[in-house]
Amino acid sequence: MQISYKTEPLSLKGPLWLFSLKDSIDRNLLEFAGNFPDPLPINLILQAYQDESPTLYLEEGKIRLHLFRTKAYTFSAIKNLAAEAIFNCRKLDTNPIILIDLALFSAQALEAISEGLWWGGQNLGLHKTSDEVPARAWNISLAGNESRESMEVAISKGSYKGALLEKIGGLVNEPGNVCTPQYMADFALREAENRPINIRIHSAEDIQREGLWGLWNVGKGSSYPPVMIEMDYHPEKCIATVGLVGKGVTFDTGGVSLKDGKNMHYMKSDMGGAAAVLGTILAAADLHLPIRLIGIIPSAENHIDRLAYRPGDVISSYSGKTIEIINTDAEGRLLLADGLSYILKNYTLDHLIDLATLTGSAVQTFGYLGGALFSNNASLSDGLMKASIESGEKIWPLPLWEEYEKEIESTIADIRHFHNSPLAGAAVAAKFLESFIGGFASWAHLDIAAVALKETVFSKEKVGTGFGVDLLISWLENFQGN
After folding, report:
1. What is the pLDDT of residues 338-352, one digit of tens each?
2. What is the rounded distance in angstroms from the CA atom of residue 384 to the CA atom of residue 394?
3. How would you classify the pairing of strands 323-324 and 314-315?
4. Domain check: are 92 and 213 in the same one?
5. Same domain for 111 and 196?
6. From 69, 90, 195, 259, active-site residue
7. Are 207 and 257 within one domain?
8. Which of 318, 402, 408, 470 is most deeply packed, by most CB within 10 A?
9. pTM of the prediction?
10. Looking at the structure, do residues 123 and 177 belong to the same domain, yes or no?
11. What digits encode the pLDDT tens for the residues 431-471?
């Protein structure tokens, strides 16, 4: 991606994407090669969008204009519009010019545009035998004299985040026969190698020796052994230590409590929480954030064979608590229980956040628009909500009422992991997790089942979003101790 500053009107011979807040396009920005209205009314272009083609053809000058008005749009809306723009440009023979009037946009909006350009330009056909690598040779032209340095920083940051989200989203997109627990471990090792991140991979043997029995029982029914990824980004100067735990189920059949086959292929995304933790730690290291991040990713495949755990089993856990298994398709909370217990026993934290594609209940509550937030700390919850607004990654708080504890009481074990009811599923799951934090006073649980995958204009199926990375980076960048 090239960035240039416009000092003369642009003479166009190819497609142009114009990001504008104005009601018309005047000639101090563009030089048309034909007798067109001056200024060119934007409503004329908007009318073209109501036709079959989202473009306006100015045949005399052979210019193809694409317009996105961004007034009153959020960060995520601008990002998505930019993604749609660049995706449509990939269909053309020539690379587009992207013109942005600096007088009209904040640095945050420019960051959203450049992030979206990467998002829409990603290559989803990595397993196709034909070569479908998209061109990345587009130019961004900046018109105006406003704070060029800060604007260029914003564009560079957006491009970085877009490239990172493409990588993290790509991990979510990988099929289960590719993205196994060991594949995720190798990915983390490779990405940490040239960054100030210490990393340890707990093998299947380590998991048994250390007593991570929740993780072990979920993963023992698969031919791909479970692992646990432990990452530590420790800057020289740090103002706080934050723990992140991500659910890393690389494929979820439901186990013995087998899922319906409809849409089961999307269960390759059941490691969306793990992907978010990976992406956040990588970004924090690259952006030199002054906060120590500990990442714990329990990873397993929930499958079926003669060794698979069963409904009715009673298992132990890293915390020492015994757990009655009610439904093997509620496996993610077992991984998180061990991950939360492990991180709190082995590290001293200021805050603890877990992310997981955990329940269908969260999807039923919010649809596919946002994730559920549960927290025992009002300040932490408020900080995450502010980050949600800034990043455009929507979350909303739900309660951790004491009455939910009755739903996970067991007659034969310390606790049961599933209440076997269609009601309050996300809240009861969060209450189960809360029982493994040992009274830790600043914890948040993000149920991102609805948003780890997303429908887009550039894919026939849902694609991985990397949801949680923008949210957490925004929270970390504005960290006030909460």
Report:
1. 999 999 999 999 999
2. 10
3. antiparallel
4. no
5. no
6. 259
7. yes
8. 470
9. 0.89
10. no
11. 999 999 999 999 999 999 999 998 877 677 899 999 999 99
Which of 161, 333, 431, 462 does the annotation list as catalytic? Answer: 333
For residue 108, what are the domain limits?
2-143
On whether residue 52 sits in a domain, the answer given is yes
In this structure, what token pair is assigned to residue 281? 């730690």
Instruction: Indicate whether 159 belongs to any domain.
Output: no
Distances (CA, A) of 137 to 85, 124, 143, 156, 295: 14, 18, 19, 15, 35
Amino acid identity, residue 369? L
The structural domain count of the chain equals: 2
Please check whether residues 133 and 180 belong to one and the same domain: no
Question: How many CB atoms are closer than 10 A to CB 422?
Answer: 9
Active site residue 333: yes
Q: Are residues 196 and 83 in the same domain?
A: no
Say which residue, 99 or 126, is predicted with more confidence.
126
- Measure the CA–CA gap between 256 and 327, rounded to whole angstroms: 8
- pLDDT-based confidence at 357, cuts 50/70/90? very high
pLDDT (tens digit, 9 = 90+) per residue, 229-260? 999 999 999 999 999 999 999 999 999 999 99
The token duo for 254 is 């439901």
CATH number of the domain at 284, please. Answer: 3.40.630.10
Decide if 286 is inside a domain. yes
Q: Are strands 2-6 and 139-143 parallel, antiparallel or unpaired?
A: parallel
* Catalytic residue flag (residue 259): yes
